[in-house]
Structures are given as structure tokens and as C-alpha cells.
Amino acid sequence: QIGCALDCKFCATASMGFLRNLTTSEILNQYITAQSFSDKPITNIVFMGM
């Protein structure tokens, strides 16, 4: 996701507000970009919040 809809007062991410969910293409592009910086294959992908 881009931003956050929870609006927690203690969190800097909340100040961005919620814009939208990432597209499949954007997520795959992040994987491809990360892989281009490493000689080892990426074997795990973890989705986490901020």
C-alpha cells in the first residue's frame, strides 16, 4: 500500500494518508529491482506494514 488509512497520531506514515494499493506490476518490479542488486537468488518475500 501507499500510505496508511489508520491515522495513528504517533506514526509518521499516517501523515501521508492512504493513497492506494500497489499494483501487481509495482510489486513485481520491486522484486526484479532487488534481484538486480544481488548475485544470490531471492528465495523469500515478506510483506510487512510500517
Topology summary:
Layout: E1 2-3, E2 18-20, H1 24-36
Antiparallel strand pairs: 1-2
Brief descriptors of the model:
alpha+beta; 2 strands; 26% helix; 10% strand; elongated
Q: Any overview of this molecule?
A:
With 50 residues, the protein is α+β, with helices and mostly antiparallel strands. It has one domain (2-36). It is built from one helix and two strands. The protein has one helix spanning 24-36; strands at residues 2-3, 18-20. A two-stranded antiparallel sheet has the order 1-2. The radius of gyration is 14 Å and the shape is elongated. The model has no long low-confidence stretch (mean pLDDT 90).
Overall radius of gyration: 14 Å
Structural class: alpha+beta
Q: N- to C-terminal separation?
A: 10 Å
Name the beta content range. 5-15%
Specify the helix fraction band: 25-40%
Number of strands: 2
Q: What's the tally of helices?
A: 1
Spatial arrangement of strands, main beta sheet? 1-2
Characterize the largest beta sheet: strand count, sense, and whether it forms a barrel: 2 strands, antiparallel
Oligomer, anyone? single chain
Give the mean pLDDT. 90
Count of discrete domains: 1
Low-pLDDT sequence parts? none
- What is the overall silhouette? elongated
What's this, in brief?
The protein is an alpha+beta fold. The protein contains 1 helix and 2 strands; from the N terminus they run E-E-H. The relative contact order is 0.19.
